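Page 47, continued from p. 46.
Same chain as before, 277 aa.
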Amino acid sequence: MLSARYDLFISHASEDKEEFVRPLATSLMQLGVKTWYDEHSLTIGDSLSASIDKGLQESNYGLIVLSPSFLSKPWPEYEFRSLITLETGDRKRILPVWYHVNRKEIMRFSPHLADRYAFDATGKDPLLAALEALRVAKPEAYAELYRRHAAEKLSVPLGKLAPNPMLGPPMTQPQLRRIRFIREALMEVFPQGWNETVTSFRRDLPQYRDGEIEVWECVAGTYLRVSRKFTLDRKRRRALFRLLIDDTIGTPIPDDPGQPAWVRAAAAEFRSELPDE
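Result:
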């Protein structure tokens, strides 16, 4: 990941600010994405490539809201070609969002953008576009969403993802076996159906799936060992689960002498390294 002042900037036509872009930017900031967008409200006479180039100097990614207002502006042809030159190698930095436009209209505007993967935000909650941008711009943070949902610490309800989840390729059989263990181990404190559980992992980018499954395996394994060792009641098992999840999202399990023995054991177990074979 590049080091930049912002995670993401939004380039858009000024006409789309009130209806779509401001709610989108608000959702991004609620999700913890450092977003710059006020400086990239484009009006007639502005240079598209200069604006995007300037934004990419300050940000890791640029999100372009392609709308009828955006496409109707008299961009010269060289502006279209400049979008290609702003990305180097295989690293994707420009994230197109379609807003009340279709592929045919995008093709007339720029064949290059028409062939790129884009999120179609037409008729959808801006939060969904924000989540897709988060998935690309901050994949580690996106992977944490499911854990925050489990700990009931989401500022944005994860349930809004349910109608149209953005899914990657299917899980492998080894991954599905690991997920089955996680689900069975945590069923009493985090009950979910099989399809819902698998879908939560399929939302992650493929290269981050194994790492996220490993985090949940650590939670499940520690939960089983500590809850059985101390024969915890349902209330304490639920508290144990919350402590473990909190640890994965930046709040370490307390291990000071004043804590109950099962809490201190959970802290030690969760941070311990398994011995080599």
